[in-house]
Amino acid sequence: MIVNEFPDRKILVENVEYLYFGGTNYLGMTTNVVFQNILFESIKKWGTGYGSSRSSNIKLSIYETAEKLLAKNLNTEAALAVSSGMLAGKLVVDYLSKTTNAMFHFPDAHPALMNPPSLPIIVNGKLNSKLFDKSISKITVLTDAVPSQYVEPIDLEMVLTIPNEIEINLVLDESNSFGILENEWQNYLKKENINIIKVASLGKAIGISGGVIAGNESFISEIKNQASFIGAAGMNPAFLETYCNAQEIYFLQKQKRSIGVSEKELIKIAVKSMGLDELGPFKPEERVIEYLLKYSADSKLVNMTLADFANETSSESPAPGGGSIAAYVGALGVSLATMVANLSSHKKGWDERWEEFGNWAEKGEKIKNELVSLVDADTKAFNKIMEAFGLPKSTDEEKLARTNAIQEATKFAIEIPFQVMMASYNSMEVIKAMAEIGNPNSVSDAGVGALCARSAVKGAFMNVRINTNGYNDKVYVAETLKRGNFKNCRWKNWKLILRCNCLLQEK
Question: Which domains does the chain have, with CATH numbers?
Fold first, then answer.
């Protein structure tokens, strides 16, 4: 079957929807919009590929950063990123085939691990008799942690019955388990004569092209010195950056929780997952550099308490004014819809719909963040106008500069509330969906959100219209008013607010 787009969890065949079990996109990362955006930003920083050897004179810092994280997540001393899971397996097997007496494999081991001289470890339901050969002192055992046709970790108890005198390199292919299973299941393998080496493709649950080798530091150092590694191009650094920056998304997807929540909530979840709050409260504003910079900056409206924001608005200062309030009301409206989406994703009996509602929550969160940023932007726009009017006007040159500055500031003061208007209008798609398909117990929340969005659109457009009075480019003014006029065909979908109200009455 040939398809024209990446097959997600569901697939259309002749207009009939089927569940798709043939892929390995275990956490849905490859089609996750937030994950994709992280990848796009990483590509901007590191480019689309890296064709040089890791042993060249230029060293990219992301390799060391990502490999430390991979080692931590794989519960090993060290890790090494390579271009594919197949290469990871071949590098390890090629090296061990030269440094051990014999190689054995469990049934259904991946071809990346299979070496022609390798022997089956189980013969007629028992350990291969060659394992008890007195001449053998060092062996390699090859196996998938979770074979591709199974959903449970492989039972490796039999390895523990191998004579203690034999040094064992146990190579676990974690391709189907990394990012899904915790490492605790391997604890029973801790034994002095067993050295665990892990390889994995990152193209399954992790959702990026590449592979990893993980083990003790001395083993990883040996692999780095192999000609096959030195001569190979490094893994795409943009993918490694994506892996580092998407940790909370992996966690949330694994927990089947929506990622359409605030940055603060994401940090809270990440902190919990990493155990950073075990010894005391973790305060982002004190421990995260971006927050330190943020809180050391001049106070902004969005950083005020609700009471302080209200007090600042009611003061004799003309800013914040109607534009900032419209943006904030719009942010509250879409926040309510986002809340409904997140609540719906965890509604009892709706377990299979968590991803559907999670996607709606992501859309709502994105719009909310845009509107929150516009709260301060509108006040800045007003301040720019006031600054322009305060410029000197003693000479013709000063008058001209002042006029140009006023016009530039006025245009900015038109564009900001227009953005507020459009973002608030776009939020209605999320609000309407949550009123129609969201948790019925929260339909009133969606309704209030709809009313907030309506007020934000109307209020923002009022600011657009009044600010156009001071702009000299009448063609631009006419076009802007035409685009924003509710009677224009562009705004016919405004009926969705009425739909929300009808749903409220029905329920």
Answer: 1-29 (no CATH), 50-235 (3.40.640.10), 298-506 (1.20.120.680)
